[in-house]
Amino acid sequence: MPRKIKKSPLAAAIFNFFVWGLGYLYLGRRIAFGAILVLAELLSYFLAPFLSLSEEFIRLLTWSIPVWLLMSIAFAYDAYQEAL
Q1: 10, 19, 58, 71: which has the highest count of C-beta atoms within 10 A?
Q2: Could you give the C-alpha distances from 66 to 60, 70, 76, in angstroms and in order?
Q3: Between residues 6 and 3, the one the model is more confident about
Q4: CA dist., res. 20 & res. 54, Å (int)
Q5: Please, is 38 exposed, middle or buried when counting C-beta atoms within 10 Å of its C-beta (0-12, 13-18, 19+)?
């Protein structure tokens, strides 16, 4: 039986914090979920330059930053726990 290589929980957490889903792909767990998260995040980065910077959009962006931070922390924690 091949030896299973233990992946770093800290690395998985850092990957998931910065790019949602990347930590899951690194661990080899929740592959479909991780791939969908990575694709969605990449798509949002590619579409961002095409958005207008209206006052309403800036206000929405201001409120979305704390939500993004909380989600990043939650995904990082989940990837860390998944690696244990």
Answers
A1: 19
A2: 11, 6, 15
A3: 6
A4: 27
A5: middle
- Could you tell me the two tokens for 75? 């995904």
Distance CA 74, CA 15 (A): 12
pLDDT tens-digit series, residues 39-53:
999 998 888 778 777
Length of the chain in terms of residues written: 84
Q: Would you give the distance in Å from CA 80 to the centre of its chain?
A: 13
Burial (CB count <10 Å: 0-12, 13-18, 19+), residue 7: middle
Locate 20 and state its tokens. 């949602």
pLDDT for residue 1: 56
The C-alpha atoms of residue 57 and residue 53 are separated, in whole angstroms, by 6
**Whole-angstrom Cα distance, residue 42 to residue 35?**
11
Return the domain boundaries, the chain: 9-83
